[in-house]
């Protein structure tokens, strides 16, 4: 490759360059700050997944025939909105996947210690934790309703004169800036919402103007004309929907900044943790299960499925035997059996894990692997069937007649022609896996109880519905966070299937 | 026909052996009975004697695969593998950690499980097919569009929320039926109504969408166009022609689940306190009772294989072209 070509390649792959830049920046930041980077197993796999995705889409961009169906997906307003929702979740998930341990202040008493290594806190933090700093640390005593200034339950409070009185105690953090909550509480909330709205509108307009300016520069259209077309919803890509969705998210973000720090926006749970923070922390768990499971099972499903269909004979029999056997075990039971074994292993080998987070992470990874083992069979069977059909087609018969090797036929002729099935299966599986996590956590074979997840939130909150008065906010928060992700994933998966599968008719979106 | 059934049954044996080996590996090789005893008895401070006693009580003190001390057949028979895994083939499940006979418990708990699962299955099937047919009748209209959007929304809600929401609304706010519990005989009905409704409603989203896809695929075929060209009403085309021809893909997906109804529904039973096989399994998983989990895994596999066989047989009922050979 000549120098000029190399330069061209760099130009054509902006995503790759951004990724490399981000990695360098992250490494530099880690080296400069007094922290010890912690790369959990799932973190490493997430980085691998992101790299794969960037490479994949860089490749897709360069091939017109691969771009066409994606453009079709993008042109649907509902699919585009779903994509933005998914992107926001992914952004949170990625921020929550950069872990480190803070350095402990060096002990002053011993002189020798100044030269020896620094010690690090056992608490593993992520970038998201740092961003949510105050919200994470403001832990109350127990339940408190959303935006409340006092605890949800009555307690003995010592008065100034020494006597005790049974009343609702003030919260330690929620609304502590108020001198007289009774009169100021509502006005303060209204004021903060108004503030958030004004800030959001300003920020949103800024994004809008910059974005439209970039677009008008790119397509060489007048700014005013483009803006009018976008507002009328007449552009090819549904920019209007994009901006409306972005606006909603900007407002929500501002709301968190304004209200989330001063109050508990979604209340607190039994041990006083902020429910909003827990729900947001759960995003990573849901995404990891939805994506890494697929990442782990994909190579097996694709390779075995194609091999069974292509070679037939005893290889086909053996592969069919394997997946019928695995399929015949009820999924939940196989997962339960395997997780019980993993649990046993972990509890007997505590010394392998330095921190609680690392232990929980290993369990999460195993959960993904086991879910992968139980879920690869469907895709494998689909691919086997499709390969059986493909191998009889003329172009593959011709390739065989020309003496092309099996590896070549599989990689050059069969694999590209079953990729749409793989893609559809991956996006369709995602939402099912996120839902499965909740059920498994309820059964007790899901993620580690110490890890934030919607399943754990529901599990610990389900008895709260029986309380009088009802503690509803934990459940409702878990419900909305999960529902939004799964709904967006389902809508997006629908659009992807419609664009890539020639058989099915138009669905929604 | 009989020869076919016999051959398929023989084909099931290697699969069951595979399942058995896999569970044996998971429960006895990955973790030794030693580890199991330690976890059951509590962590570190366990005496070796206590572990030995625990293992002896449950028959885990034998060698895994080969007993060198025993004579003749005993060297193979007097092992954990034979006692715990091979015995499953004759449905000898042994006893649970608390000493109860697993086979007896399974027989007892099958009734409540079926009392819940069969109504959910039948009502759900009828309702989903009806809704899907209506949506297919109004395809490519506003009704179709709304129908699909609503079913996508319904299937985006976790099953847990259907249960929690149903219990909250019907039992706690409206006080119509008890929140949870169970009684034998006819009084079971008042305990089963809500779980059945919740089960049916929870399945509408994905069920309707699945049937709609099947019907729409069928509607685009040539014979449907011919039927319309003959001048048949759309209603007749849909109910007489499309529904009948859609039976094959429907049977493929549905029949295999029928035997698995015996296994009960894990979370519904557990939430509503119905003493069926689903809650039995969940309790076993939570108590880490490996004997029960092993028995249920085996039972599940047997039922799945029966389901596959039934699927093949059901084809002959709806499609005269299919001959079993």
Describe the structure.
The complex is a heterodimer of chains A (509) and B (325). Chain A is mostly helical and 509 residues long. The C terminus of chain A is likely disordered. In chain A, helix 5 packs parallel to helix 10. Chain A contains 18 helices and five strands. Chain A has a domain of 321 residues: MetI-like fold (Orthogonal Bundle), CATH 1.10.3720. In chain A, strand 4 and strand 5 form a beta hairpin. Chain B has 325 residues and is mainly alpha-helical. Chain B folds into two domains: 89 residues, no CATH class; 209 residues, MetI-like fold, CATH 1.10.3720. The radius of gyration of chain B is 25 Å and the shape is globular. At the A-B interface, helix 12, helix 13, helix 16 and helix 18 of A face helix 1, helix 2, helix 7, helix 8 and helix 9 of B.
Shape of chain A: globular
Please state the second-level CATH architecture of the largest domain in chain B.
Answer: Orthogonal Bundle
* Strand content bin of chain B: under 5%
Number of domains of chain B: 2
- Total helical elements of chain B: 15
Helix content of chain B: over 70%
CATH superfamily of the domain at 33-105 and 119-130 and 274-509 in chain A: MetI-like
Give me the CATH fold name of the largest domain in chain B. MetI-like fold
Average of the residue pLDDT scores of chain A: 83
- What is the rounded distance between the termini of chain B? 7 Å
Number of strand elements of chain B = 0
Main sheet of chain A: which strands, in order across?
1-2-3
CATH topology category name of the domain at 33-105 and 119-130 and 274-509 in chain A: MetI-like fold
SS strand fraction of chain A: under 5%
- In terms of quaternary structure, what is this? heterodimer
Greatest interface (CB-CB under 8 A), with counts per chain: A-B, 50 and 56 residues
Number of strands of chain A: 5
Radius of gyration of chain B: 25 Å
Low-confidence stretches of chain B: none
């Amino acid at each position: 490759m000549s120098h000029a070509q190399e330069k061209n390649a760099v130009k054509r792959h902006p995503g790759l360059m951004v990724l490399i830049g981000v990695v360098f920046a992250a490494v530099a930041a880690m080296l400069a700050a007094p922290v010890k980077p912690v790369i959990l197993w799932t973190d490493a796999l997430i980085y691998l997944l992101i790299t794969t995705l960037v490479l994949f889409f860089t490749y897709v961009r360069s091939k017109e025939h691969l771009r066409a169906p994606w453009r079709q997906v993008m042109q649907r307003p509902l699919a585009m909105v779903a994509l933005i929702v998914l992107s926001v979740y992914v952004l949170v998930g990625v921020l929550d996947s950069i872990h480190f341990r803070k350095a402990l202040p060096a002990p002053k008493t011993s002189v020798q210690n100044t030269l020896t290594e620094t010690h690090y806190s056992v608490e593993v933090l992520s970038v998201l934790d740092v961003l949510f700093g105050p919200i994470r640390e403001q832990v109350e005593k127990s339940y408190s309703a959303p935006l409340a200034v006092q605890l949800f339950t009555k307690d003995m409070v010592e008065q100034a004169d020494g006597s005790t009185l049974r009343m609702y105690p003030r919260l330690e953090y929620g609304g502590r800036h108020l001198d007289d909550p009774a009169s100021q509480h509502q006005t303060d909330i209204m004021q903060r919402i108004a503030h958030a709205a004004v800030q959001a509108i300003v920020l949103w307009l800024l994004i809008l103007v910059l974005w439209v300016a970039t677009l008008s520069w790119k397509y060489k259209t007048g700014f005013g004309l483009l803006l009018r077309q976008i507002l009328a919803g007449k552009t090819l890509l549904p920019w209007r929907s994009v901006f409306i969705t972005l606006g909603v998210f900007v407002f929500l973000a501002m709301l968190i900044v304004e209200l989330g720090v001063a109050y508990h926006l979604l209340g607190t749970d039994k041990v006083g943790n902020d429910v909003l923070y827990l729900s947001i922390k759960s995003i990573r768990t849901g995404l990891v299960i939805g994506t890494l499971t697929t990442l782990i099972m994909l190579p097996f499903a694709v390779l075995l499925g194609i091999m069974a269909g292509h070679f037939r004979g005893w290889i086909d029999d053996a592969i069919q035997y394997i997946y019928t056997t695995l399929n015949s075990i009820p999924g939940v039971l196989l997962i339960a059996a395997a997780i019980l074994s993993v649990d046993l292993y972990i509890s007997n080998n505590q010394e392998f894990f330095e921190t609680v987070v690392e232990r929980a992470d290993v369990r999460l990874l195993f959960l993904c692997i086991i879910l992968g083992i139980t879920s690869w069979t469907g895709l494998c069977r689909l691919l086997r069937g499709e390969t059986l059909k493909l191998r009889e087609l003329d172009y593959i018969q011709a390739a065989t007649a020309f003496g092309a090797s099996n590896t070549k036929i599989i990689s050059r002729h069969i694999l590209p022609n079953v990729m749409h099935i793989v893609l559809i299966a991956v996006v369709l599986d995602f939402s099912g896996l996120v839902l499965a996590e909740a059920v498994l956590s309820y059964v007790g074979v899901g993620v580690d109880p110490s890890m934030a997840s919607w399943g754990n939130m529901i599990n610990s909150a389900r008895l709260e519905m029986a309380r009088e008065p009802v503690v509803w906010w934990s459940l409702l928060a878990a419900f909305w966070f999960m529902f939004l992700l799964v709904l967006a994933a389902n809508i997006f998966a629908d659009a992807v299937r419609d664009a890539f599968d020639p058989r099915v008719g138009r669905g929604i979106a | 026909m009989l020869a076919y059934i016999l051959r398929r049954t023989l084909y099931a044996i290697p699969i069951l052996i595979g399942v058995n080996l896999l569970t044996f590996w998971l429960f006895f090789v990955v973790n030794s009975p030693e580890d199991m005893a330690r976890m059951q008895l509590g962590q570190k401070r366990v005496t070796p004697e206590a572990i030995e006693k625990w293992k002896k009580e449950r028959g885990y003190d034998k060698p895994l695969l080969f007993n060198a001390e025993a004579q003749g057949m005993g060297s193979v028979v007097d092992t954990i593998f034979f006692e715990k895994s091979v015995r499953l083939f004759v449905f000898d499940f042994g006893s649970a950690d608390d000493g109860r006979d697993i086979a007896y418990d399974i027989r007892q708990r099958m009734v409540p499980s079926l009392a819940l699962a069969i109504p959910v299955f039948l009502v759900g099937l009828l309702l989903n097919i009806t809704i899907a047919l209506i949506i297919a009748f109004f395809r490519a209209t506003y009704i179709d569009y709304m129908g699909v959007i609503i079913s996508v929304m319904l299937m985006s809600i976790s099953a847990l929320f259907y249960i929690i929401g149903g219990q909250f609304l019907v039992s706690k706010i409206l006080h119509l039926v008890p929140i949870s519990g169970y009684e034998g005989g006819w009084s079971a009905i008042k305990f089963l109504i809500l779980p059945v409704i919740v089960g049916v409603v929870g399945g509408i989203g994905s069920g309707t969408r699945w049937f709609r896809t099947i019907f729409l695929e069928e509607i685009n075929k040539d014979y449907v166009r011919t039927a319309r060209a003959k001048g048949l009403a759309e209603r007749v085309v849909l109910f007489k022609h499309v529904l009948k021809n859609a039976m094959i893909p429907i049977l493929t997906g549905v029949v295999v689940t029928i035997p698995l109804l015996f296994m009960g529904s894990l979370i519904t039973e557990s939430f509503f306190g119905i003493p069926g096989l689903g809650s039995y399994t969940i309790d076993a998983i939570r108590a880490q009772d490996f004997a029960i989990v092993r028995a249920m895994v085996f039972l599940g596999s047997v039922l799945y294989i029966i389901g596959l066989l039934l699927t093949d047989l059901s084809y002959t009922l709806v499609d005269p072209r299919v001959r079993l050979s």
